[in-house]
């Protein structure tokens, strides 16, 4: 239960509290919030807690957008799929084995491409920009069509 509580604290309590703390500043600046969390995926045995958190964050983004729109604040989410990060090294994959591991992982998504962190950053910048002022409550999925069957 401790692992579940930690997951909820980090992935739900922190975004909620940060949003509450930022609202006074965002009211003055008419700024916006971009939540970043994993793309939608199939629910798999053993991942119930992750599915719960992911779905809660999606609803938080939509409900937050509805609540904050009257304040002139937008809230959206960017939801990257398989992204080149340090997660493999956290799983004890050696530096020498990384290219082969990522190549195998790339074949698990329809476009056979691992997303680069820079692409995620560009999408966050776009979503946060004034280019689309009516983009509000959106969950922008960036996953090479991996969630297309979900």
Model description:
- The chain is mainly alpha-helical and 150 residues long.
- It has a single domain, classed as Rossmann fold.
- It is built from five helices and three strands, in the order αβαβαααβ.
- The chain has helices at 2-29, 48-68, 87-90, 98-106, 117-128; strands at residues 32-36, 74-80, 139-142.
- Strands 1-2-3 form a three-stranded parallel sheet, with helices on both faces.
- Strand 1, helix 2 (48-68) and strand 2 form a beta-alpha-beta unit.
- Helix 1 runs parallel beside helix 2.
- The protein is globular, with a radius of gyration of 17 Å.
- The two termini are 28 Å apart.
- The model has no long low-confidence stretch (mean pLDDT 92).
Topology:
Layout: H1 2-29, E1 32-36, H2 48-68, E2 74-80, H3 87-90, H4 98-106, H5 117-128, E3 139-142
Parallel strand pairs: 1-2, 2-3
Structure keywords:
Rossmann fold; three-stranded parallel sheet; SDR_fam; globular; 5 helices; NAD(P)-bd_dom_sf; mainly alpha; 150 residues
Shape: globular
CATH topology: Rossmann fold
Fraction in helix? 40-55%
Order of helices and strands: HEHEHHHE
Oligomeric state of shown chains: single chain
Short description:
The protein is mostly helical. Helix content is 49%, strand content 11%.
């Amino acid at each position: 239960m401790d692992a579940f509580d930690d997951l909820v604290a980090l992935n739900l309590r922190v975004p909620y509290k940060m949003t509450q703390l930022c609202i006074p500043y965002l009211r003055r600046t008419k700024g916006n919030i971009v939540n970043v969390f994993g793309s939608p995926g199939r629910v798999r045995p053993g991942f119930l807690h992750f599915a719960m958190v992911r779905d809660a964050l999606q609803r938080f983004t939509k409900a937050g957008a509805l609540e904050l729109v009257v304040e002139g604040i937008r809230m959206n989410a960017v939801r990257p799929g398989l992204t080149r990060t340090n997660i493999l090294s956290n799983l004890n994959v050696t530096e020498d084995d990384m290219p082969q591991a990522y190549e195998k992982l790339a074949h698990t998504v329809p476009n056979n491409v691992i997303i680069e962190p820079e692409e995620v950053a560009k999408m966050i910048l776009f979503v946060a920009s004034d280019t689309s002022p009516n983009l509000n409550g959106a969950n922008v999925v960036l996953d090479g069509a991996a969630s297309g069957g979900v």
